[in-house]
Amino acid sequence: MQKPGLRDRNCRLYVVCTFVSVLAILAVTIISFAYLILAAPSEAHTLNEGEYPVGFLEPIIGAVIYLVCLALLIKDMRRRMRGCPPEEKDARFMRAPLSKAAILLSITATTSVAIILLSHLIHEGITEDFLDGYSTYAIMAMMLNAGPQEEIIFRLLLIGVPMSLICGLKGRGGSKELLGGFGMSRIALVLLAVSSVLFGLMHLDGWSIMKFPDTFISGMLFGYVYIQYGLHATIVMHSAFDLLASFDLIFDGLGTVPLVFLSVLGAVLLIRSLLNIRGYIPGNTLHEPFEGSLLDMWERERSGGLSEQIKRAHTFREPWT
Prior knowledge:
Structural class: mainly alpha
Helix content: 55-70%
Number of domains: 1
Number of strands: 0
Distance between the termini: 22 Å
Mean pLDDT: 85
Radius of gyration: 20 Å
Shape: globular
């Protein structure tokens, strides 16, 4: 039997890179929460210091949201893989929203490292002087909270709400679109581009001009995950990336090592997407209405988990399967 080549989406190389990327999300979560909990007795007071104190409430809410979202993704993964025949394991694993979030997390690391290198070549570094007034503990707490906050603002409000209104006007329901997972379409692509531009512009405050291309590309990737797989998936992806980017503070400069390693995995997985670039072009103006619950929408393509009626109703193009 001929081994699957690089054009095969379930090529073993891609599966291994994705598996390691999923492990990276779990490792980042464990290390970050361990640091925040163990350092709390001596460092938690810094959350109420500085010109703009972080406070205790928002990081706690952000942590709860992140853990709930990650738990939903892990639960979905377990349901997909339970009782799976050996010959289908790779395909099912690669279709899981947690795997999709991990793939695009690694690609985000690749694009970010590339832009950092480019900024050094043109002598236009990405400054972050506004963080100088915060402790390492406070910065980690802010990074944990930034994912849920920014995804709610830039994805739910700027993509989900307009999409819900449009679907409502078209007589296609509209309530499920708020939490994402409705699938790519031409209208969704326009909303994705607009929200990503605004996401990039927002990060210019306190950063240098080179932060715009970095956050614009990241916004496109975060938004894609929101549209295809749901708000819970993009919150995990966004928060895990922010926490990983802040590891440099905890490990005194060595934190860039896991980021560079993840970017190498992302470069391999980026090849996977570029070889199937045609699948990203939406053929429909608006996605078909989804018949089923929100969890059905988020867990679509789980083999044996969706009725044929739901599968037929949800007909958008999916390049990652």
